[in-house]
Amino acid sequence: MCGKHVILVAEDDVDTATMLEELLTLEGYEVELTATARAVLDALAERRFHAVLLDLTMPGMTTDRFVSEIEELGTPSPLMIFSARLPHEMQAIAERLHAAALIPKPVDIDVLLGTLSKVVLGSLGSLGSTDIDR
């Protein structure tokens, strides 16, 4: 992969976040980790990402409020819903947020990497380059 593609990983489980950071870094991505709902919202408000791997259940607020606040932001970063919720719940939230992808937990690494690659490539056209404004 040429250039660094910046991925926001919103995951409150330390072991999962660490595994994802190591995996994505080895794949050539730059990873920013967040572990609370407020940190996710602040990161999305501050900058654009090539992709956001978004756990729906984050400390600090209910899922409904968290989803509503993300929806209000209207983030231009492509969202990849990453959750253990029931498929119909994930689908409904993904539609609300216009998510680029759904990744069920437990994660299949090949599915995650393949989907992430497609989402990042799709985001390059809308972002204009591999550089993200900080």
Automatic annotation (TrEMBL):
Pfam family, one: Response_reg
Domain Response regulatory stretches: 6-120
PROSITE patterns found in the cross-reference section: RESPONSE_REGULATORY
Aminoacyl-tRNA synthetase keyword on record: no
Keywords: Phosphoprotein
InterPro entries referenced in this protein's UniProt entry, alphabetically: Bact_response_regulator (IPR050595), CheY-like_superfamily (IPR011006), Sig_transdc_resp-reg_receiver (IPR001789)
SUPFAM superfamilies according to UniProt: CheY-like (SSF52172)
GO biological process, one term: phosphorelay signal transduction system
Modified residues (4-aspartylphosphate): D55
Domain of life assignment: Bacteria
Protein name listed in UniProt: Sorangium cellulosum 'So ce 56' complete genome
